[in-house]
Amino acid sequence: MSFAIVAEPLLGVYKGHIGDGQPDPLPSPARLHAALLCAAAQGVRAVAEADGLRPCDADRDALRWLEANPPDGIAVPQTLRNGGAATAYRKEGLVVKEGRNPLSDKLIGKPAVRGVAVTGRFAWTWEQSPPEPVAAALAELCPEVPYLGTSESPVLLSVVDAEPTHRLDREADLFTGDGLDLAVAVTGRVDALEAAHRAASSPPPLKADAHRSSERTEPPPVATASLTIGRYSQPQPPPSPTPWASALLFPLERPIPPESRVRCAVAVHRTLIALVGDGAPAILTGVYEAGVPRPANRCAIQFLGPGAPAVGGAAAVLLLLPREASDVDLALIRIAAPRLRVVRVASGPFSVGVPVEVPADRFWPEPAAGTERWWQTDPVAVPDTRPPRGGRWSLADAAALSVALVWRQEISALGRGDARYRALAEAAAGRGVRVQSAVRVMDGDVGRYVHRVHPDTLIQPYRAILGLGDLTGPRTIAAIGQSRHLGGGLLVPVDLPADIARRMVR
Amino acid sequence: MTNFVLATAEPKTMLSHMALYGLAAIVEDSGLDDVRLFWTGGMESRPVLTAPRATPETIGEIVRAHAAQRATPDSWPSRAVSDGEPRALMSPRLSVIPSSEGWSSLQDRRRDVLDRLTRSRALLDLRLLAALGEPSYWSLNRKGERFQDDGASRLEMQPRNQGSEFVGNRIRPLAAAVAARTAAAVSDGLLGRSCRDEIGKDAATSRTPTGFASPGPTDNALAWCALWGISQFPIAQRIRIRVRGGREGFAITTGHIGQGTAGHCYVPIWYGRWRTARLRSIVASRQLREFAATGLPSEEVGPIDPTACQWLAIRGVGAVVRFTVERFGSDSAPERRAALGEIVKTGRR
Fold it and tell me: Which segments show compositional bias classed as Basic and acidic residues (chain A) (predicted)?
């Protein structure tokens, strides 16, 4: 059950100042609190005390509730700041001796309070509704508030429904991150404001009130007690879709050594196609008719060793189902998958257990506290292309390009051929992809890490540690590189201590 | 390590930064070992001085003794421009000195003070005097009129109305007020446990912050440290005068961008624990100055190095707090004041 106080600026403008008269960009929760207190103490709900008024007990309780419960969210409409510096000349009601006339009015120019133009309404929202008496008191009090900020920005305040655009971030750090840093009233604010009001409105002693030769208007001091800063930040955008939607996880009785994974993956692939039978979808077979657009990723078959931080800790074979596949194709594969029992390879058959389906974006465990999730290619990754001509090209660039090709829906680049490859690698770096310690694997027969390539292509299997930036969440399973569909380039989490990871990002 | 938290010092007020820098300079000058400075995390960030012996008693006594030494009749703040002329000799901005005898007398007396401080190896005093600057005899306009104030630090914001000046109207009374306290009262004021504004009589319009914050009651020990914080911001004197787009003869002040008496002040916020030497090297860096100009109109600040942000982030600077210097009161003797700060983040972490 949510609760919201909404302020509609009647003139489409908000004017307020903070500090030494700097324009206030938007009304803070503390300003709302102060306006409500003012309405409670001087409006129709106030009760008489001595020769003045004071807030009634119900209003006081409501304001105390506000202090204990800062708004969980605020809604900020579009605003445009008035940039010009205007000077406001006012007769201050004082007399100066300067000039010819010994009794001339003091006319002083001061920077005028600049405003912001507002399209829409401000709102302060709470996820939990306040207790009934508090909600009732606030609903009664809101219409009593004539303006927020200066009296030139009248508002209509009411308790109605509203959706926040920014939410309170309780873990924020003042000097990092983005968001609106707003003053928030905390316990004791009512008392501090009442004390300040008493001090400002009590008549001065006769001596202090005497006429002096030089008079100056003194603004009352700003009460800053019992205020804190709240960070209201816009919610994170939803994580981008994963390249593979989910993974079918088949338990294995014995782990498959890294060097025979491609061979075993090919065997699993063949067996699955045979199980699906005639008309096996192209997303599984990888065979497309000429002219049919090819998706970025197909069904991928990957192996997890017992050491991988996987589900259960046992060895497993994974069938990754691509996001772009049609429902019919996926249904065919899901029906065939449980019938996979024995896979025959030259080194001897191995049997697989009953599969379970795991969502791809919740596959790996959460990173440990104080660490950042990076990824290691397991066992090795193979570049998708030969090095493009014209300029430097490192293994790290090749890895970034492989990432960009997997997340082709997220990363786009212009150009053709080599220029496009370079642009893709650069765009991946722009999304925060960082490749560290990429080393080529010099290992007898590199052919065991790829299934089928063009005979002229140089195969360069490599190991690398990479960060995926904001491309995906820390728990997503994915594989990169030329062999990503058949047993290569699986990205296995590596949790680096945060300070080391930060050094690597530089 | 003992942490000494300036609990009332919040990062959007320039006084907080200056008080931290000044306090660190004072305690380090007194010989306290391994003094380091840092800012706490979270939304309620506070500056902290940390050292193995940074107990409230030790620090209170160091600051009290420091003030008491500057309140003695033969200390430099007590020196007058000339006999029978109470204005302070070491003020960087004084009322006009018309005669050349006046200038040579002023110079002789100033040099005498500097020689004595040099002999006694009073490094912090020398650092402060060098940072404050001096009345400039060298800055003239086209008509040959002298701009005496051009040799002064822009951080010295004492209004010059009614003959008031920085050392005589701020340093002297503050030194006396802090020296009159007990060590415990000094540390209480610094820690924010109490707020006594002896020289401003606790008035709501007290000018004790001297431009580093809006008028208001300010603890005198805190203000004393803040004024000594100027010592960490050296100046560079200039003679050249350019008429188009304003004069350029005034001293360039570390921690200040823009021309003349307005412009902006800036200070860094860092992660990790810094010594004052580290602070001085970063504060005086070109990169901090250029990063602090982020988003300001370029004709005001000149070209900006785009790699400055990264340079700072590598050195642990998380943000720069930038204060617009506002002018109040009359045009002839304006009161300058650093407004509430604006946080410019380097994006580190």
Answer: 208-218
pLDDT of residue A1: 55
Q: What is the pLDDT of residues A370-390, one digit of tens each?
A: 788 889 888 788 888 888 887
| pLDDT greater than 80 at residue B239 | no
Please write down the HEC assignment for all residues of chain B.
CEEEECCCCCCCCHHHHHHHHHHHHHHHHCCCCCCEEEECCCCCCCEEEEECCCCHHHHHHHHHHHHHHHCCCCCHHHCEEECCEEEECCCCCCCCCCCHHHHHHHHHHHHHHHHHHHHCCCHHHHHHHHHHECCCCCCECCCCCECHHHHECCCCCCCCHHHCCHHHHHHHHHHHHHHCCCHHHHHHHHHCCCCCCCCCCCCCCCCCCCCCCCCCCCCHHHHHHHHHHHHHCCEECCCCCCCCCCCCCCCEECCEECCCCCCEEEEEEECCCECHHHHHHHHCCHHHHHHHCCCCCHHHHCCCCCCHHHHHHHCCEEEEEEEEEEEECCCCCCEEEECCCEEEECCCC
Between residues A96 and A242, the one the model is more confident about: A242
Identify the H or E element spanning A269. helix A261-276
Buried b (16+ CB within 10 A) or exposed e, B143-181: eeebbbbbbbbbbbbbbbeeebbbbbbbbbbbbbbbbeb
Look at B326 and A175 and tell me if their CB atoms are within 8 Å: no
Lowest mean pLDDT among A137-151, A170-184, A226-240, B29-43: A226-240
The residue among A20, A170, A175, A470 with the most chain B CBs within 10 A of its CB, best to mutate, is: A175
Within A355-424, strands assigned E span 356-359, 371-378
Asked if the Cβ–Cβ distance from A20 to B44 is below 8 Å, we say no
Which residue in chain A is spatially nearest to B203 when comparing CA positions? A221
Q: B339: which chain A residues are within 8 Å (Cβ-Cβ)?
A: 19-20, 22
Place of tokens 């974006």: A361
Q: Is there a contact between A20 and B204 if contact means CB atoms under 8 Å apart?
A: no
pLDDT > 70 fraction of chain A, expressed in percent and rounded: 92
Q: Is B339 close to A19, i.e. CB distance below 8 A?
A: yes
Q: What is the pLDDT of residues B286-342, one digit of tens each?
A: 999 989 988 887 666 667 777 888 889 889 999 999 999 988 877 777 889 998 899
CA dist list (Å): A170 to A231, B43, B146? 7, 9, 56
What are A109-139's pLDDT values in tens digits?
777 878 899 999 999 999 989 999 999 999 9
User: CB contact, 8 Å: A18 with chain B?
Assistant: yes
What percent of chain A stands above pLDDT 90?
A: 22
CB contact under 8 A, A506 and B348: no
Tell me which residue of B106, B103, B126, B104 sits closest to B114, measured CA to CA. B126
- Write the residue in B318, B324, B340 that is nearest to A176 by C-beta: B318
Q: Which residues of B touch A174 (CB under 8 A)?
A: 11, 42-45, 343
pLDDT at residue number B220: 95
When mean pLDDT is compared across A270-279, A453-462, B216-225, B272-281, the lowest value belongs to: A453-462
A363-373 pLDDT, tens digit each: 888 888 778 88
- Measured in angstroms, the CA of A409 and the nearest CA of chain B are apart by 28
